[in-house]
Each structure stands twice: as structure tokens, then as C-alpha cells.
Design a protein that fits this description.
alpha/beta, eight-stranded parallel β-barrel, 15 helices, 18 strands, disordered N terminus
């Protein structure tokens, strides 16, 4: 019942880190690994345990010395119902110690058992081999044979047989007198068969081996365990599905603020157009192809030459060929939300703000067609953050990102078209922090932040721009003109030392480029453009 790929680590060759072996020597060549008595244990674990008397059964682990031999009880005379008495969602488990946990689960869930699994706590391969057997009873883990819990619990459960892995036949005959014993071969490649999804409960721990052992123990209860050792979004798709679908998730490790937010995003089920929670992924190429313009006019780009529904169909044609390298293509509308103006306007900022109601139909059409939206700002004499806040309502949606166009960022006293605008990294970072906080507060997938640039002067101190995990920060080369000139601009902008800190995009112009580059020409660029727009 455990589908997550992390449980394959049950089969690792490493010992369980959280449960270190108590033995002081390695097993001899003639003794099977996992026999504490044959391995030269510390005093009391082997020789002393052989002569120890058995006292009773269900106290705390290791509080009472037990006999080295556990004898089978008399067979039951009535038909027993040994099915679990609760589910994973109904019990509270301490995941810090797998030995204690295995006995707690047994006592809580089972009044009896048709069979009991038995393995050494520090042998993940043996635990995996047993868990793959679909046991009809609990899986008990031990560190030595001198535990009163083991003898008492087996007597209480009165199993018809004991299924073991990692012990020699001679040891089992000596230790488990009178029981029907089935020895399972320790199989390092053993993996658990797929379980029922969604799981009732999933435990998140900070160690892969711990997750493997915990997953094996809670598997019969409809539970699972996932190891998170850093970035939640770095988990496999199967592991993300386990977390996303679980009825409840219990965290038993310090995730840190980034991973905690990422887990919340996964649990929310929110995804980007095309699936997933990362705009761009180094292991999966996603490319956005966009049409650029303003909803109310065709003078500012191809987007305004038709309505939203017709725009979707036109974009599908435009995007042809951009999947030639195997990329997943996502269509996008890049909408000019604030338009540079020759007039100061009532607010004096030389920028006209588009009403949300004019943009909203495009945003809704994009959502209905699994598309992304980028809102483009041309702020004039005001700052980017002031304008971005006017569109916060839309930016709280998972499929809406933001673009900053420094070409139209004026200094006091400047007007448009007399110079190319400029912005410093400090002002960009104000937007970065604000937008990242929205993403985190709303538990949104990663959001795209586009920075337009075709001259170095447009962005000063570019290397100081922050790139937090909430945002995919992309530099968009949006220069126009002869193709060789565009290539030269691209090479200059991408030749800086900070190039690898950003994702990269390219812009095609139907009228101003000569000729308009083809999809194959764009895909031949290095670094590879992952956002391509048409104006």
C-alpha cells in the first residue's frame, strides 16, 4: 500500500541511522548477519540473555529481562478475528524509535495475529523483504533477543506462524521453540507493492531510511511515510502525489520555512498550467509561448487584434514548432496592464493604468484553457511596486505572473521616447519581496517574474537582483531589428557572469524584425529561451 518512491530506499545497504546497532563487533563469517548472540554482543545481550528468566509481556521495551527462548503457546481453540482494530488515521505514533513504534502499533491494533513478522531494526533490506510479503499481522522489530517485549508480545498475539528475514535457521530454532517459522530471503531489490491512494495518513520525516522503516510499519494501516531532506519540490512525482492525496499529513522533522511553504502548496493541490508547481524545472523543459499587447487596441501588439477566445486559437498556431526539442509548451497572454503615455495624466506618472475589468476576461479565458498570463508594467515616473499593487487581486491567482519593463521607467523630469528608461536592482527587489510574499501567503505555485532588457543600462546592478524560490526570475531580451543585431544583443546580455542566476526569454516582432526569427532559430540559441513572445 505504499506508492511513494522513497520507500524503495528500504532496500539500501545502509543501516538504519536512527537505530544504531548495540553490538560492538561485526558478525562472524559463520553467523548470519542479524544474530546478536552470534555476533559477539556486549555482556547481557547474548550469554546472559540465554539464562535469563522470562517475566511478562507488555511493559516498556527492555524494562524486564527475557528468556533467550520464546516457546509457542497452546493453539487457539476458537475462531479468531485478528484484523486491525484501527486505521492509520486513528492512532498517535512516536516515529522517533522504530523498535518502540513496532510494538506500539502491534499492541494498539492487534488483539491477535495469524502471523507475525520479525526483523532486526538495523536491517532495512530484511524489513523491506518482510513488508513486501503482505503480512497478516504486525511487523515487530528488535535490536537483540533479550527483550521482554518480544516474548510477551508473541505470547499475547499467539500467531500461527512467524515470518522472519535476516536470521539463520539455527538461531530461529533455538530462539523460537515450537513455532511454525517461515524464513523469507533478504532481497535487496525488494519493494512494496502499490497501495491504495489516497492514503489515510502520511508521516513526513527527515531521513530516507527512517521513512523506509516507518513506511513498512504503517503500510498495513493505510499509511505511508515520505522523507523530506530539503526542497519538497525536488521529490518524485509519486511522492508528491502521496502528499497531495493524503487525508492528513503529520510532520516529524524541522522542514524550515521554505519546505514548509512548499508542502502547503502541494497539499493545497494548486498547480500551474501544464501541471506541476515550478514554472521552469531543470529536469523538465517547459516553454511558454505568448502573444503580447493590450486588450483594447491592435496598435500595441498582436494580442489586441482579436478577442480572448480567438487569441487562444491564434496562439496555438504561433506556438507550432516550439516543442521540437521535447519541451512542454504552455500558451500565455502577455498583457500590457499599464501603458506608457505621452501625457502626464491626472496622477502625473506618464502611465495609463488599465482597469481590472478589461483584463479579467483574458485572465479567465486563460484559466479555462490551461494558459498562463503575464501582466506587463510600463510605470513612467512612478515605481514598479506602486503599480504592481494595483493588480494584486489578479496576481493572487496561480496562473498570473508579472513583467517589469524598464524601457518605460522614467526619472523625474523625463518623458517617454527621448531616452531608454532604467531601473536599479534595489527597486526590482522591492517587487521581488512583495510578490514572493503573496506566493507564500496564498500557498501558490511558483510565480513568473519577467524583466525586459535589451541594453545593459536598462537594469543597473543586475547581479544583485534576488531570486527567491517563490519566483522564477526571467530576463527577456526584447530588442527588435535585423536578426544579426538581435543575436549580438542576446550574446552580450547572456555573456555576463550572472547569466546562470536567471532563466531567459526572447521576443519576436512581426513588423520590426527583419526577418522575424523562426522557431528553429530561436531554439538554436544558448542559453535556451523558455519564454518566447510575439508582438
Amino acid at each position: 500500500m505504499l506508492a511513494c518512491a522513497a520507500l524503495a530506499l528500504l532496500c539500501s545497504a545502509c543501516s538504519l541511522r536512527l537505530l544504531e546497532r548495540t553490538e560492538t563487533q561485526e558478525p562472524s563469517a559463520t553467523a548470519e548477519a542479524g544474530d546478536p548472540a552470534a555476533a559477539g554482543t556486549t555482556a547481557g545481550a547474548a550469554g546472559t540473555a540465554e539464562a535469563a528468566s522470562t517475566t511478562a509481556a507488555s511493559g516498556a521495551t527492555g524494562t524486564t529481562a527475557a528468556s533467550a527462548t520464546t516457546e509457542a503457546p497452546a493453539p487457539p481453540t476458537t475462531v479468531r478475528d485478528c484484523s486491525p482494530r484501527a486505521s492509520a488515521g486513528e492512532i498517535s505514533l512516536d516515529t522517533a524509535d522504530a523498535v518502540t513504534l513496532s510494538f506500539d502499533i502491534s499492541r494498539t491494533l492487534y488483539g491477535c495475529a495469524e502471523e507475525v513478522g520479525l526483523a532486526l531494526a538495523w536491517s532495512p533490506d530484511a524489513i523491506a523483504s518482510l513488508a513486501a510479503q503482505e503480512l497478516r499481522g504486525p511487523l515487530l522489530l528488535i535490536e537483540s533477543w533479550s527483550s521482554a517485549d518480544l516474548a510477551g508480545e508473541i505470547r499475547r498475539l499467539a500467531p500461527e506462524r512467524i515470518v522472519t528475514a535476516g536470521f539463520s535457521e539455527q538461531i530461529l530454532e533455538r530462539r523460537l521453540t515450537g513455532f511454525a517459522i517461515e524464513r523469507v530471503r533478504v532481497d535487496p531489490p525488494a519493494t512494496l507493492p502499490p497501495g491504495d491512494v489516497p492514503y489515510q495518513r502520511v508521516w513526513v520525516v527527515g531521513d530516507a531510511e527512517h521513512a523506509a522503516v516507518l513506511g513498512a510499519l504503517v503500510r498495513p494501516l493505510g499509511g505511508a511515510a515520505v522523507a523530506v531532506t530539503g526542497d519538497v519540490w525536488a521529490l518524485t512525482p509519486a511522492e508528491l502525489d502521496v502528499l497531495r492525496g493524503a487525508a492528513s499529513v503529520e510532520v516529524h522533522t524541522d522542514l524550515g520555512s521554505d519546505a514548509a511553504w512548499q508542502l502547503e502548496v502541494v497539499r493545497s493541490g494548486a498547480e500551474l498550467p501544464g501541471g506541476g508547481v515550478l514554472i521552469f524545472d531543470r529536469d523538465r523543459t517547459r516553454r511558454m509561448v505568448a502573444m503580447y499587447g493590450h486588450p483594447t487596441t491592435s496598435q500595441l501588439g498582436v494580442l489586441g487584434e482579436q478577442g480572448p477566445a480567438e487569441g487562444v486559437e491564434r496562439l496555438r498556431s504561433i506556438a507550432e514548432g516550439y516543442d521540437a526539442d521535447g519541451a512542454d509548451v504552455v500558451l500565455a497572454f502577455e498583457i500590457i496592464a499599464t501603458v506608457a503615455s505621452a501625457q502626464a495624466g491626472r496622477d502625473g506618472d506618464y502611465s495609463n493604468e488599465t482597469a481590472l475589468d478589461e483584463i479579467r476576461p483574458w485572465v479567465e479565458t486563460a484559466a479555462a484553457n490551461d494558459m498562463y498570463v503575464v501582466l506587463d508594467l510600463q510605470p513612467g515616473r512612478t515605481d514598479f511596486l506602486t503599480q504592481a499593487k494595483q493588480y494584486e487581486e489578479l496576481l493572487r491567482l496561480p496562473h498570473v505572473g508579472l513583467a517589469l519593463d524598464p524601457e518605460w521607467r522614467l526619472k523625474p523630469g523625463q518623458v517617454h521616447l527621448r531616452q531608454i528608461g532604467t531601473v536599479d536592482a534595489a527597486e526590482i527587489n522591492e517587487v521581488v519581496r512583495w510578490l514572493a510574499e503573496i506566493v507564500r501567503t496564498e500557498a501558490l505555485p511558483q510565480k513568473l517574474l519577467v524583466l525586459h532588457q535589451f541594453r545593459f543600462s536598462m537594469i543597473t546592478n543586475r547581479e544583485l537582483i534576488e531570486t527567491p524560490p517563490e519566483l522564477a526570475v526571467l530576463v527577456h531580451m526584447d530588442g527588435q531589428g535585423p536578426i544579426n543585431t538581435k543575436y549580438s544583443t542576446w550574446e552580450a546580455l547572456t555573456g555576463e557572469p550572472d547569466t546562470e542566476r536567471f532563466w531567459w526569454g526572447w521576443k519576436n516582432f512581426y513588423d520590426e524584425d527583419s526577418p522575424t526569427p523562426t522557431a528553429s532559430q530561436v531554439l538554436a540559441l544558448t542559453p535556451l529561451p523558455l519564454f518566447v513572445s510575439y508582438q
